[in-house]
Amino acid sequence: MAQQSLEQRREQAIVTDFAGFWQSRHRQDQVLRAVVYLLLVVGAIGVMLPFFWMISTSLKRPGTEFTFPIEWIPVPPRFGNYQTAWTILPFNLWLFNTVRITGLSILGHIVSCAIVGFGFARIRFPGRDAIFLLVLATMMLPYPSVIVPLFILFKELGWIDTILPLVVPTFFATSAFYIFLLRQFFMTLPLELDDAARVDGCSTFGIFYRICVPLIKPALGIILVFSFMHHWNDFLGPLIFLSDLDKYTLALGLRFFQGQYRVEWTLLMAASLIILSPCIILFFIAQKHYIQGIVITGVKG
Amino acid sequence: MLGKSRLYWKNVFEGYAFISLWIVGFVVFTAGALFGSFSISLTKWNIVGTPEFIGLGNYQKMFEDEFFWKSLQVTILFLFNVPLNLALGLFLAMLLNQKIRMIGFFRTLFYLPSVTAGVAVSLLWMWIFNPRFGVINVLLKNIGISGPAWLGSETWALPALIIMSVWGVGGGMLIYLGALQGIPTAFYEAATLDGANALQKFRRITVPMITPVLLLNLIMGVIGSFQVFTQAFVMTKGGPNYATLFYVLYLYQNAFQWFNMGYASALAWVLFLVILAFTFLILRTSSSWVYYEGG
Amino acid sequence: MSTQMSRRSMLKWMAAGSATAALAACAVPAATDSGGSGEMADMEDITIGWARHGSESDVPTETGLAELFKATHPGVSVEPLVLPWDDYNTKIPVMVAGGTAPDTFGCHPALMAETHTAGGSTPLTDFIDAYGADLNYDDVVYHGDALFDGVVFGLPQKSCTHQLRYNKTLLQEAGMPLPGDLYWEQGADGWNWNTFIEMGKELTKDLDGDGETDQYFYGGSGGTNQLATIRSAGGEVFDEAISTCIINSAEAVEGIKFMADLVLEHKIQPPPEMQASELGINFNTGKIVMAGGTTCDSVRDLREGYELPFEWDFVLVPAGNAGFRCWGDTDQIVISSSSEYAQEAFDWTVYRSSLQAWEEGYDSGIKLAFSDGPTRYSIFESKAYTEPLGALDIPMIREGYINTIPNPFVPRSPQPYRVLFTVMTTEVDNALRGVKTAQEAADDMCAQIEEILAENA
To answer: What is the b/e burial string over A71-84, where b = at least 16 CB atoms within 10 angstroms of the residue's CB?
Structure first.
């Protein structure tokens, strides 16, 4: 009994000590920061491991990708793989095509989905919620089952083998996800903003354009990033609607490196990394400008 | 009374004006495809011959089709990735919302997997999961653990695909990050003055303020998981022993490999109803836990 | 009660509503494209669409062959559409369903059968007869793949046999005879199940002494070699009328049992879960003595700049009681039933399938040997084949073609792909895992196959 209470007392002392240590704002801050760094670094290694292998494979001699034990740093590294991967197929041309489709689509998505998202978020009108469910419903039919009807539709429009089926729909808010996303962000803005603006004589469109849009810049940044990534990597749309080799996109081209029975691992990884690089740069810039993040008081101290 | 009514009509007009773009887009680009796919679901059609109208025959066939049930079961099991991704995404976003050095670098890094093109990712993971020569089991062997066969194992194939989906958590993380940024700092300052600790601030401020995007990620996660396809298509072809026969994979096989376009379309509409029911349920309950400033 | 309506009218009806709205909404003139294929019917210059599945090096190949064809056929341009395997198998059905199938397109056996059943391909017998002796049809490999009820529906674009690739270096280091040499020996010491198992026991090794096998003799292979093994045991999937499943016969079960024993009893092959979705990774590690490989895709490892860390060659799947059987099949070029230029399309088909295309291509730098596989027996003697693949045992590759029995190798059943690559492979795997006995697995196969037969009766 006595021993136990002694132990308890000791424990208590430790707890008090720790509490004292913890109460120091500076210390608290330091420990938290160390934990955050530790978690980030461990997570980063986990996330990066596949990429290390991607890079390593992209530098190997074809045929030696899987020599065992795993060879992480190929000797000598074959940087020539990057040039081969890029020139074996007309990737420069496909880059141009992809940039054109991606650029137009981003513009279409941002403009149209912002307008529609605002309508669903901040104006009350009968039928709104039912229509919104319909918006969501358009995402629920699996794509493989609408491919054929869509192909026939665009064929009847005479749009097959042009970029129109890939670009025009984006200007009509056909992405339910982005509408949904922007609606959710618009909804987080206080309603008092609208009232104040109305008192100042602002029209609803004015409220949308002048007041709300600037406040959801982070969300627009997210859409910029998402729609860029989506169209940059989309192969199914181009696959269905484009048939002319000269009109292909990068993502479609990348798939050539996987055959029926074999994969050109070195070229696939090299080309993937090249195609990935603009995404990295774009994301780095976008997160700096749009998603700066805030300083939570508790951590900053 | 009259003023109220005028505001009502103004809202109706403006509301529909704002969403008119979507309505046009829906009528032109989506409705036809939906209707077309539904029409096909009522027929027997091997893509070249004449579609033969068979009423609800395809839908009846489903009840007796063991692979329909199997694929539904596999897909619902895969839904476990949704809460996992939600929690991990939020956790990561909180970590990446700190003012620390190299934050841009870390954010980019964690987002990278979501950016990498599909074909490379699926093939990459095939190597990672290779039971004998892949990196996971090699590392496990180094610490004395004999790893499972992953994609080759009936038990582990689905968990393996879930692990792979967690690797791409960066997309959800990005949405949280945007939402976290929208929380006014004043809220936290006031809470600090009231003596709230970090956990209290998280529960009382952060979570309520991001519930709208939590709802977004939840619904998108559910819809996306029901439609998951590519990984299984490239990596497992539905095996081993149908352990990864996702619903949409089975649908694809019917449509494009066996040319049962009618049956595939019927499968699509049943999935549509299932997803709709899930979404409707989530939206119904959401009013009790989602906090909106406006609307 | 079933009502029939014309496919076109129904599809048009489906699209009509939305199409009209599109016109009203964005005022884009719809080109009324009624021509099923090709460009405007300019009599001077005809364009033939040509689609095939292929990988990166097949893009310049097809462009180059189209140019060579144009040199001898002025006024006819061929527009190639090359797509990767998975994408091709999505795109072609969509194009066919949309009524815009390319004039000519390559069909692997499953697509060939599906396209034929659906009425998407043109019968070629009359065209071939009109061509006469010049075509030398007897030289063409695998007639069977193109034949439906005695009518020819295609000429081959490529042909493949599925054999075993063996790691020569590992065998030589162990002082073992090469399977390729054993093949030519008749009798008990030849290349049969017994020698396979014996060699397997010698060459399956625990290299680092930790109690786990590091080097396996056999890496296994997919459904193609499984069917070859079942047939080499004297088994078959269907009876001759394709009305009954007979893969649960004693002979077929013996073949399945042989495959299962390699894993469960002799342990010279890793369990099937260890080999899932591996895309050639295992063999390329150099820790496996032999594994399945095709004679038209695997040979790409011999191209310039490629280098496996060991020497390798091909051999057939070892002989069972019924002798050697080898999976072999062709990708056939079919002419779409919607093509408006059937004669020109046929001319292209003849050229694309010919020894002439191989040789002219080879002289202009196109090496079909690295991807397509001979479409004619005469190609085995051509420098267009022997020069690029000189490092390999070419007579052995040819043996695969000779032992592709029956011809066609893929049964003319409904949904052959599903039967072989979903039902059969899944159940054989179950036997290899020890979840079911060979007999149980075979019975379950038949139960499912009978269901497919009944569905499509």
So the answer is: eeebeeebeebbeb
Chain C: residue whose CA lies nearest to B156: C273
CATH number at residue B91: 1.10.3720.10
pLDDT of residue C279: 72
B166 domain-assigned? yes
CB C238 within 8 A of CB C411: yes
Partners of C333 in the β-ladder = C106, C155
Confidence class for position C105, pLDDT limits 50, 70, 90: very high
pLDDT above 80: residue A97: yes
* Residue C443 tokens, joined: 């019975």
Please state, in angstroms and rounded to a whole number, the distance separating the CA atoms of residues B59 and B76. Answer: 20
pLDDT higher than threshold 50 for residue A29:
yes
- C36 lies in some domain: no
Question: Nearest CA of chain A to the CA of C31: how many Å?
Answer: 5
Beta-bridged to residue C334, according to DSSP, are: C105
Higher pLDDT, C385 or A235: C385
Residue C165 lies inside a defined structural domain of this protein: yes
Domain hosting C104: range is 46-159+329-402
Instruction: Measure the CA–CA gap between C24 and C449, rounded to whole angstroms.
Output: 51
- From the list C18, C87, C100, the residue facing A239 with the nearest CB is C87
- Lowest mean pLDDT: which of A14-28, C58-72, C350-364? A14-28
What pLDDT digit, counting tens, does each position of B243-271 carry?
A: 999 999 999 999 888 888 999 999 999 99
User: Of C21, C115, C274, which is closest to B27 when you measure between CB atoms?
Assistant: C21
Mutation site, C33, C56, C161, C288, interface A, largest A CB count within 10 A: C56
Give the integer Cα–Cα distance in Å for A291 and A256. 36
- DSSP state, residue A263: B
Domain of B229, in residue numbers? 60-286
Chain A hits for B203, CB-CB cut-off 8 Å, are: none
Pairing of strands B52-53, B43-44: antiparallel
Chain C positions in Cβ-Cβ contact with residue A239 (cut-off 8 Å): 83, 87, 90-91
Task: Check pLDDT > 50 for residue C375.
Answer: yes
Residue range A117-126, pLDDT digits in tens: 999 998 889 9
A283 touches chain C (CB under 8 A): no
Residues C235 and C184 in one domain: yes
Same domain, yes or no, for C281 and C342? no
| Mean of all residue pLDDT scores within chain B | 88
Q: Looking at CA atoms only, how far is residue C69 from chain B in angstroms?
A: 30
How far is residue C352's CA from residue B12's CA, in Å, rounded to a whole number? 64
Q: Specify the range with the lowest mean pLDDT, choosing from A130-139, A282-291, C65-74.
A: A282-291
| Residue B234 predicted with pLDDT over 50 | yes
- Residue in C with minimal Cα distance to A89: C56
Task: Give me the interface pTM, i.e. the ipTM.
Answer: 0.85
Within a domain: B40 = no
The pLDDT of residue C39: 44
Q: Which of B111, B22, B83, B79 is nearest to B217 (CA)?
A: B83
SS3 sequence of B53-108:
ECCCHHHHHHHHCHHHHHHHHHHHHHCCHHHHHHHHHHHHHHHCCCCCCCHHHHHH
Looking at the structure, tell me whether residues C146 and C233 fall in a common domain: no
The Cα–Cα gap between B194 and A153 comes to: 61
| Number of structural domains found in chain B | 1
- CB of C26 within 8 Å of a chain A CB? The answer is yes
Residue C7 pLDDT level (bands cut at 50, 70, 90): very low
- In whole angstroms, how far apart are CA B54 and each of B212, B255, B256, C415? 44, 17, 20, 21
pTM of the complete model: 0.86
Which CATH class for the A90-257 domain?
mainly alpha
Domain holding C445: CATH number?
A: 3.40.190.10
